[in-house]
Amino acid sequence: MKVHYINISLFALPLNILVYNQRNHNNTTLNTQTKRSLCECELFEPANYDNDPQMKEVMDNFNKQTQQRFHEYDERMKTTRQKCKEQCDEDIQKIILKDKLEKELMDKFATLHTDIQSDAIPTCICEKSVADKMEKGCLRCGGVLGGGIAPSVGLLGGIGEAAISAWKPVALAAAKKAAIAAGIEAGEAAGIEAGKKLVIQLLQHFHIDKLVSGICEKISSARHYNEVLNFVEIIIERRNAMCGADGGTLGKDMCTKIGIKLGTLKPDGINPNLPDRDAVTKVLNGIAGKAKTNAEAAEAAKNSTLTAEITEQQTAAINATYTSWQIAITASVIAILIIVLIMVIIYLILRYRRKKKMKKKLQYIKLLEE
Hints:
membrane; transmembrane; about 70% helix; two-stranded antiparallel ribbon
């Protein structure tokens, strides 16, 4: 309690006298924090708001939080508005589609002529859409491919097989004919060469090559081995020149051998036998005859061998061509069949879809009638 006393110096001395009391012996004095009150800040003066740093910080934080909240609110509103707009558009499209479907069904119902009790598919005579026209085109295409082309594929394959089967014997006959012609030509050339070789050997056997120098080369370059008959006069002339009474340039022994070989002298080498012309002609005719026989044999052998070789080669080539054509025709037929099968499957799918669509239309019509 606070008691005032007046002393002689005339001033007031406050005395705090604590009265001892059993009831407040446990009381403790709490330290109170000093706080600013609004009255101290002069609340109604704007200058204090602008100059106070703490107030500025509070205001800035408030503005930032407020702007952030508004921004988040705008974002949420945008998303909500977009969802609402999409939902509204979807609802509007559903309503429009429903109205359009009802109108279309009513129009088709007005133009359809069908017997509902017999489950017949109605025939719509109204204007078709692009999808309906395309579907009908695919149906016609699939029907044509499935019903028209598929049966004809086998016919085409049979025609191709028959054509190449008929071509093969003709080609083989032509190849054999060409092989025979080539064999004859080659055989003739081989026979001439064989005849020339035999003529040269016989001329050497009769020592005529010693009388007429270079006769073998002339026979080799001649067109035919029979040209040896053209040397009768030359042989006689050269023999008379080279085999005189004293033996000439060839010597008596060589001239005697030539005379015996040609037949102008008898085997004893003394007595004459045939005149020079007759003897030389006879010897050259014999040489030509032997050459002809040898040439014919060589020609026949070459002809048969070459004909067989060419025939075998042409037959192999024709068989290879026939096989390749057969494979090509088979592959073409298989490819056509696969295409036709795919088109038939498409046709059946479109047909099923069309029937399903028409049945659905029929159900709508029944619902409208009810």
